[in-house]
């Protein structure tokens, strides 16, 4: 895999789960991290951990990805600090509600705003800088964005959007040398789901679902493609997923 030492990588949703694990895996390989999410205390804690554990710089930037100006500022802060942007990991995401007939406007808009608008804002702001480094955008998709999810059609639709956007974008920016990747997990043991009950890390035991570090490794692999190559889509599923589909 390509060396990422000294690269500057933005991870959204870095305050928890897959985002936090991704930041750790990338820092272990020498990347400088820009950590984005709303919970600033968690970002600061993680930045301290990364800087003391690994020989890297980590910049916490409190960001609500639904606020376009904050996302623009996030990318500007990255380029201001590191003079470059090599990777963007569009990871921030939420799943709320479920039954369409009972879904509130707030639940609907929050999922659309974070999962769809947030990924769009960050990608748009990042592209001019990624052109200069021939960098990579990684989207965290989902099994729910590949197969129907009867339990939460709106969440599923946001992830179908992410995949559709990512693959079409790949066609638009591939000539510029930018790689676009989608990583699709099934259930991962994180705080996902905690807004409305037990988090997945409580619902599933260690032998029942994926650990966030495994998804982080998939992101690292996507960011590590050299030359003309790009990971198009990487499905990392529970091996018993289709037994319970
Ligand atoms: N866990 C799973 O089973 C699973 C499966 C497939 C795909 N995914 C996807 O994986 C990604 C990461 O989820 P996770 O499992 O790691 O869940 P998580 O532990 O709940 O983390 C979600 C992250 O998103 C951030 N976030 C939420 N709203 C935000 C906003 N408005 N602005 C900025 N950041 C925001 C949260 O940070 P703050 O609250 O601090 O802002 C948090 O860091 C999501 O896109 C999710 O859809 C998860």
From TrEMBL:
InterPro entries named among the record's database cross-references: KR_dom, NAD(P)-bd_dom_sf, Sc_DH/Rdtase_CS, SDR_fam
Keyword terms, alphabetized: Oxidoreductase
Pfam families: adh_short
Signal peptide: none
Domain named Ketoreductase: residues: 7-191
PANTHER family noted in UniProt: DEHYDROGENASE/REDUCTASE SDR FAMILY MEMBER 7B, DEHYDROGENASE_REDUCTASE SDR FAMILY MEMBER 7B
Family from the record: Belongs to the short-chain dehydrogenases/reductases (SDR) family.
Protein name: SDR family oxidoreductase
Organism annotation: Halorarum halophilum
């Amino acid at each position: 895999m390509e060396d990422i030492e000294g690269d500057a990588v933005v991870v959204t949703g870095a305050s928890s789960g897959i985002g936090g694990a991704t930041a750790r895996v990338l820092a272990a390989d020498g990347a400088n991290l820009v950590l984005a999410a709303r919970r600033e205390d968690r970002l600061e804690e993680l930045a301290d951990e990364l800087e003391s554990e690994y020989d890297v710089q980590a910049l916490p930037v409190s960001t609500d990805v639904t606020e376009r100006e904050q996302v623009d500022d996030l990318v500007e802060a990255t380029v201001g600090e590191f003079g470059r942007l090599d990777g963007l990991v569009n990871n921030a995401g939420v799943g709320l509600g479920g039954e369409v007939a009972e879904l509130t406007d707030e639940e609907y808009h929050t999922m659309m705003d974070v999962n769809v608008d947030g990924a769009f804002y960050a990608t748009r702001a990042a592209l001019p800088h990624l052109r200069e480094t021939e960098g990579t955008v990684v989207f965290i998709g989902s099994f729910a964005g590949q197969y129907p999810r009867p339990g939460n059609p709106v969440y599923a639709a946001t992830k179908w959007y992410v995949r559709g956007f990512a693959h079409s974008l790949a066609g638009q920016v591939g000539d510029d040398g930018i790689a676009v990747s989608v990583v699709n997990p099934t259930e991962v043991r994180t705080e996902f789901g905690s807004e409305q009950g037990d988090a997945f890390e409580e619902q599933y035991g260690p032998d029942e679902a994926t650990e966030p570090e495994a998804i982080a490794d998939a992101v690292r692999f996507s960011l590590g493609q050299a030359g003309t190559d790009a990971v198009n889509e990487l499905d990392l599923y529970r091996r018993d997923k289709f037994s319970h589909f």
